[in-house]
Known about the structure:
Keywords: Lipoprotein. The protein has 1 helix and 24 strands. The protein is mainly β. The strands form 7 sheets. A 4-stranded antiparallel sheet has the order 1-2-3-4, with no helix packed on it. It has a 4-stranded antiparallel sheet with strand order 5-6-7-8, with no helix packed on it. A 4-stranded antiparallel sheet has the order 9-10-11-12, with no helix packed on it.
Amino acid sequence: MQNPPGTPPVDVASFKAWGDFAADKHSLYFEGKRTDDNGGGNSLDIKTLHQVEFRPPWDPDLLGLILRDANFLYINGHRLADPESFRVLAQKSWDQRGKFSTTFNPCIAVPFGPWDTLARTRTKILLNGEQLDADPDTFSVVRWMPGSLLTWRDKNGLQRKVLDKENLAWDEDLTKHCLDFSLLEKKVFWRKGPACKQEELPGLDPEQFQPISDAVAQYQDSLYTIIETESGDRKLEIVKLDDPNLIINKRFNAGKRHGYLLTRAEG
């Protein structure tokens, strides 16, 4: 490992590593590259340095490395102030088939990882440890395709960041996958027939469309349910929830007058 010209050389005697993060008496490093100075009043406090662990309901951050000492956060090798202000805003699994997809144990509501982690400090918005050019106080998600794309709005307007071009191209190509519900950047489809025949559900915001299982999805105050007929055809039924604030997130969900039970799809 060699530092860029004009920066202090690697100090082997003081060099220590914590996973992909490392430091010597002059520099901070991440994945073998120098990322910041280390010295003076901003020196890393080795005695208090530890990895930040997320409390329930959040899952561990698999795609970023977040450490902190008594004074600073260290995220992907960069020093950030206000460590006490750090908090997780949301997590979203790369697998968008729904918590109760039959791909998983039908009795356990755990999505398959990895997952993106969106977090903030007092002055920064972070996605998997990467700092976004976003204002944290006016930040709101417009479209989040985990591992592929994040579009947000803040006081500076609408901003779109491609996280991985290949992942996004795959997500947008319906011939690459045959999901019961497919969420593209701006469109929602459902699998209407055999050979992955897809039909668009017009006028829906894909960010608000939430697949729950291999047969059920929720959009605002409605359930979209795929029904297998005796002839083997598939049809889509839309059921209005009796409680517009009800979130379907368990096997059995109680509304104001009705109960909603998630069952396995046949066929």
